[in-house]
Amino acid sequence: MDKAPSLPDSAVPAASVAGSATPDDLNIQSRNRHFASAPMENRYWAGGDPYGTAFFNALSVTFPKGETFFIEVLKQYRKDAPEKLAHEIGAFIRQEAVHSREHAFFNRHVEAAGYDISRLEATLAGVLDGIREMPPIYHLAATMCLEHMTAILAAEFIKNPSYFAEADEDQRNMWLWHASEEIEHKGVAYDTWLHETRDWSRWKRWTVKSVFMARISVGFAKNRARGMLDLLRQDGISGPRAMAGLARYALLSPGPFRRTIGTWFQFFLPGFHPWNIDDRDLVQLAESEYEAAVMDQHGGEETVSDMPEPRRAGKLPKVA
């Protein structure tokens, strides 16, 4: 896999968004990595575990259209944002565009492994269509909530090596790269929300964001569970066995939902901001692991920037 030179997308002077805790020296980088030429070596690429594979495959199905939706939403607010936030929105858009592209290719590999993901895609499309029927500020509220959920899961995936310890290396690298960038831009949608609702009362702001987070979290959990069970049925795993295995994976070991419930609840507290937890060290951890993996693939003598451009896997289909 290749690492394009990192660009200081948000290296601009600080400008205030009232209530923001985003670090003044935060640098949101566009890495533009390519994983399309790395097909899955195994159907159960997550260490031979059908439940872990179903968990991440179902999550991946949401990203091409989901992140395209986030881009559409934040684009509306970039023009009128303060300078620093406008640059961060631009960096957010560049990162999310690459995530959308790479997960579209990842999902191709999921289909090539024999899975039908059309029902999962249809469910997502229905949810997004429903959100689009709401006023634009609610599009932003939904984006802010989903970005928080994505960021806390991303931090968990990097902190806990068990998720990808036995995974195919290329898939592991892709997920850790994506997770690190979700942490980097985790405050952008929230700061945009703070700026756009700056004339709202604190009560109205808290009520709207809390109602959206509660509704979206329930829908997210329900729809992802249905998607995972759909994929497991295609593996011949269904009924109580599938539900028990999925519950064990999600809640017990490794337990991503159990491990992130505390940071999820913080969203409802007065004074919440995603950057109240400064976990940029996790970005560096993911980057160092990625570079070590790539150097190992090439004999350990080249830097990541020396790696050859990867072979492309054809033209990317439209994801919007």
UniProtKB/TrEMBL annotation:
It holds the Pfam family Metal_hydrol. InterPro entries: UCP07580 (IPR016516). Residues 1-23, 297-320 are annotated as: Disordered. PANTHER family: METAL-DEPENDENT HYDROLASE. This is Metal-dependent hydrolase. The lineage of its organism: Bacteria, Pseudomonadati, Pseudomonadota, Alphaproteobacteria, Sphingomonadales.
